[in-house]
Amino acid sequence: xxxxxISPPRLNQGDVIGIVSPAKKIDETxxxxxxxxxxxxxxxxxxxxxxFATDNYFAGTDRQRSADFxxxxxxxxxxxxxxxxxxxxxxxxxxxxxxxxxxxSPKWIAGFSDITVFHAHLLQFGFESLHCIMPLDFxxxxxxxxxxxxxxxxxxxxxxxxxxxPNFFNRRGVAKGILCGGNLSLICSLLGSxxxxxxxxxxxxxxxxxxxxxxxxxxxGTLKRAGKLSNIAGLLVGSLNEMTKGDPDFGHxxxxxxxxxxxxxxxxxxxGFPAGHFPENYPLIMGxxxxxxxxxxxxxxxxxxxxxxx
Length: 310
Hints:
Order of helices and strands: EHEHEHHEHEHEEHEHEHEEEE
Low-confidence stretches: 306-310
Number of domains: 2
């Protein structure tokens, strides 16, 4: 059952953006370039204490990454928590976080890939979040790319309908529902956890990068067996980049694998949406109701209505 989702307050010029690294470590130069770009757009920036920390693969220990995220959740000055990058690590800290102050004074939590963990978790208690480009992928030349510009426009309440060219594999139809999902492997890894994604009646978005095709088949099969594909209103597929055939060749493209998994259902399916591990990684509001139509073109229109916290 869909619930009334709460939208964080709109971002305004001069607001503070908090940057944290909840997963893989990141080069300091990349974050500093992003900071300059964010300031250029008229916002202030506050860095997590351990944003540049390293602990082998991770951006610091679990305790350090958790402490940074908690500090941003609790800081009344911070209006958006922007994750510096994905990788792996968010699932290791999610259960140590206390969202009490966040629920009293919500803010945007933004990112994609491994940040799917936070998007899924926030849906459990009714809050919207931003699936979007992160500092790792911000242009290093000081130019505000379209995905970066739209990230801050969306957070400011300026929602742009998406109209994209059709894909050969699309399945036509019209649907309406709350948008959920993110990275396919992360959605699968959350099954049965406190952050498990409830897909019933929703528009499910998935994207993936760097996977063997048989693993895509396995993950789609896992979602199907878990009942995550049978009652969705529609399926929106973003990037499917750097897929490998395996040895021997699995014999089917990622799009074919996905269509096969949902063949018995009748909802609309659209491929090639510009979100995920694309250079054109445009923002999506997870938890927002959307109208989704697949025909001569693909349209995704966000409901402008929001339920604001008391």
